[in-house]
Design goal:
This is Holin. The termini are far apart. The chain is built from four helices and no strands. The protein is mainly alpha-helical. It is flat, with a radius of gyration of 21 Å. The model has no long low-confidence stretch (mean pLDDT about 85). Helix 3 runs antiparallel to helix 4.
Length: about 110
């Protein structure tokens, strides 16, 4: 019985795997975010201005945090460091802290 279902589902699984290579990263998250945005619009339309304002702030904070990190440490770019050294881990952690601080600062402060 298991072989029957495997043979039945194999073309579908192959089709999904073939399409999955062409879909951009985080597409599923974008779809979920769009569905949640539609749910907020249907259930509480008066909150849409707040949701869009916060979305704007997060979208603004992401590149700002990246450029702040590059300005603070121009030579400490994680992708240019040796993966075996501990410096790369520290640089990635530093970048994530700067990103978190910028996003939280912008979204909570404004």
């Amino acid at each position: 019985m298991n072989a029957f279902f495997k043979a039945l589902l194999n073309p579908f699984i192959n089709a999904v795997q073939a399409v999955a290579h062409r879909i951009p990263r985080l597409t599923s998250w974008a779809i979920v975010a769009g569905l949640l945005l539609m749910a907020v619009a249907l259930l509480h339309p008066e909150q849409m201005t707040v949701v869009l304002w916060k979305l704007c702030l997060v979208t603004l904070a992401a590149p700002v945090s990246y450029w702040i990190d590059r300005a603070l440490s121009p030579l400490g770019r994680p992708h240019q460091m040796d993966p075996d050294s501990g410096c790369r881990d520290v640089a990635m952690f530093r970048r994530s802290l700067v990103f978190t601080a910028c996003v939280l600062g912008l979204t909570l402060g404004l």
